[in-house]
Amino acid sequence: METELLRIAELAKFDSKMKFTSLAHLLNEQSLTQCHYQLPNKKASGVKGTTKEQYAESLKENIKDLVSRLKSKSYRPVPVRRMYIPKLNSDKKRPLGIPEHEDKIVQKGIAKVLNAIYENDFLNCSFGFRPNRNCHDALKILNFYIEKRAVSYVVDVDIKGFFDNVDHKWMMEFLNHRIADPNLLSIINRFLKGGYMEEGRKYKTDTGTPQGGVISPILANIYLHYVLDLWFEKLVRKRCEGQAYLVRYADDFVCCFQLRREAEQFYKSLKSRLKKFNLEIAEDKTKVIPFGRFAEHNAKRIGKGKPETFDFLGFTHYCGTSKQGKFRVKRKTSRKKVQGKLKESKEWLKQNRNKNIHLIMDRFKRSLMGYYNYYCITDNIQTVNDFREKIESLLFKWLNRRSQRKSFTWDKFRLFLYKFPLPTPRIKHNIYELRNEISYIL
Fold this sequence. Notes:
Elements (H helix, E strand, L loop, with lengths): L1 H13 L14 H10 L13 H5 L2 H13 L8 E7 L6 E6 L2 H18 L16 H14 L4 E6 L3 H4 L2 H9 L5 H11 L3 E3 L2 E3 L12 H24 L4 E6 L2 E6 L2 H17 L10 E4 L4 H7 L8 E3 L2 E7 L5 E7 L1 H18 L4 H19 L5 H19 L10 H10 L16 H4 L3
Helix pairs in contact: 1-5, 2-5, 8-10, 13-15
């Protein structure tokens, strides 16, 4: 399958208008078996409760039966299991759809095909769920635009419930631009219309692509490629007298403008553009703000003090200066993310404080290392250090509640941390270092 996918990618790159008429045959026994092995272990199971390990007990027979149903067009995805995860610092919960393992296999296979075709179509402004691109690359490019290009205004946008409101009719229309295989399109449409199970009842899905599905990220990228990226590149930028840039990671994006009137015009145009495709912005979370090398001077001139800030990919971006006194964009972990992680840590400690101390400290070591791997970027070490100290305070508080008699004084707790040290944060990502795969964008 890998050889055929490379060939498809070459053809897609050679002819941007080519339609692929025969793709469903790629979902064969060999490729789907490979997809099974590539799926992560010990993940939540779907409605039937079949795990990867259980499916593997009769893997050859199961895959053979799956391929037979795909060829005879009798394959029907099982409705996803609806579950909810709490939103950070909110009483609301985010819905997730957990597919059956067999459906994950098919979705994985389709996602590979779609990636082979569309990776050549996607624009440089898109960073989410793409090979050789990540959140830190998006932050680095955004940093470059604001510091090195003529940017004075930022439009910080939040799309309201994007994954719940993807229009199926438009989604299939966008896929038709590149795919003319009715069999593959039919399977994708069945995934979109598959519905979900909640409390024993089946519900239809007339819109949306469930978060949690293996295929959802690539479908989201395809949808926003046509709705936003191409529109911004082909129409918005060309009509601007000043400079304009877009940086998008999945449904989270920021637009930079040189001229205020063009930033405000874009904000108005964006509303009607999204409405056409059954999307809307969250107006309470979307704003046009002065941001850039002249923002601080202009803010003081009109008596506002410091320039406004904006959040993107878990970081609060604010105007600062280098040691040489030159303008530079700085970032710190957003308050919402810090509070959310502290709340999660507190709840875990509250429930598990009486477990073996080695298990507790190992959990927090791993948790902190994961936190550092993402948030330890240029200018953010102090904020990460503050977070680490708050974690230590939580440990002190809840380990002292293992019994009615307090186990620790602060002096004893320091000795305890000497024996069970927590990792120290160090810069993991230099915001001014661009990888070779990304530097060509500039």
